[in-house]
Amino acid sequence: MRKTQHGFNSLLGHEPLKIELPSFAFDHHLPAVVPWLADILGLVRVGGTVADPALYPVAALQALPAQTETVTYTSAGTPVTNTFTGTLLWDVFTDAGGVTTDPTAKNDGLSHIVVATGSDGYRAVFSIGEIDPRFGGEPILVAYDDAAGQLGWLREDGSARMVVPGDTAGGRYVSHLIDLEVLAGPAFS
Asked: Which CATH superfamily includes the segment(s) 9-183?
C-alpha cells in the first residue's frame, strides 16, 4: 500500500495525492491530531481493497463526475432538507482503480463493505452491493458542497461528508469525512 510522492501541488490540484505513508497509517492507529489535520486540509483517504489507494483532496473529488441530490432526513429528531453536490461513492472507488475482488469467487464484491469515518472517529458502514450499479446502484454521495453552506473549509460539517438519499435518518451522513476503507468480507462457500 505504499505510494510514490507526486509533490505538494497535488494537495491543491485535481489529482489524488499519491504519497508514501507508513504502514500504521492504514491501520487506524494514528494519533488524534492526524484525523483533525486531514479534516482541516480537506483530505479523504481511500484505502483497503481498492487497486490504487490514495488521499483525495476536495479538488480531486470535484474533478470526478458530479451529482446533485436534494434529500430529507431526520437529525436529532428534527427533519432536515438540504441539497448536496458531490461524486458517487462508486465513482470514487472506480477512480481509485476499482474494488479488488477474487475473480474466481461468484459476486465476491457483494461480501465487501465500506467503512466511512469522520475526524471524530464516528463511523458508518455501507455495502458494495448497495452502490455497485450492477446491483443496488444507490446514489450515495461523497458530498463537498451543499445549499445550506455547511460544507467547506472550516465549516460546520467539514470539507466532505457522506449523503445517503435513501436513508430517512441521518445516522450514515458522516460529516468531517476523512476515510473510506473497503474491507473484504468473509469467504462464502
From this structure: Oxidoreductase, molybdopterin-binding domain (3.90.420.10)
pTM of the model: 0.83
Give residue limits of the domains in the chain: 9-183
N- to C-terminal Cα separation, the chain:
28
Q: What is the residue-level pLDDT of the chain in tens, covering all 189 positions?
A: 333 333 334 445 556 655 545 444 544 444 444 777 888 888 999 999 999 999 999 999 999 999 999 999 999 999 999 999 999 999 999 999 999 998 998 999 899 999 999 999 999 999 999 999 999 999 999 999 999 999 988 888 999 999 999 999 999 999 999 999 999 976 433
Task: Report in angstroms the alpha-carbon separations of 178 from 42, 43, 45, 79.
Answer: 8, 6, 6, 26
